[in-house]
Specification:
Blueprint (H helix, E strand, L loop, with lengths): L32 H20 L4 H5 L10 H19 L19 H4 L5 H24 L8 E4 L2 E4 H27 L5
Antiparallel strand pairs: 1-2
Length: about 190
Amino acid sequence: MTTERWTAATVYPDMWTDPDKDPREALSKPVGEKETYQNYLKHYRLTLEMKCEGLDAEQLARRAVPPSTLSLLGLVRHLAHVEQSWFQRILQDQPDLPKLFGKSPENPDADFDDAVGDPAVVEDAWENWRREVRAADDWLAALPEDELGRTVRRGDDEIPVRDVLVHMVEEYARHVGHADLLRECIDGRVGQ
């Protein structure tokens, strides 16, 4: 199946949308290290939402490259899990918090495997993702900038808070790249 390439942009037809209509362009210019992390996270989170916008449950759950279970819906679920794991389990030291979507050592890919084209599953995924993003944003907003070098425990390792934040930016950047390709396979809409 060949999907026709399309875009909503009129000025730059190889873009997702024109820069004057891109909500990510409105993000402030960061001042300081913490605000830089906050802005990158906002940018990538908004990009994920844009990549999923306008699709129905079946399209969001569509796997692009069988046998992989990677889908846009799976990415939303996975990133909700990642937000919870890093911001609550690790940074806020809540290791016993129940994992989202039934992830476990026996079912490590539940966030992707169980991402099915059911509107209730889609609603649940977005609800969890938005709740975890709000919780992460609230925690980060309250964190004094001088605590970015403080270490937290992950298993037997001690890692600085700033390393976790860089990892979160990297996690989103990688998966938004996946989202570009997944969306283009669904309806031809190109990335930006």
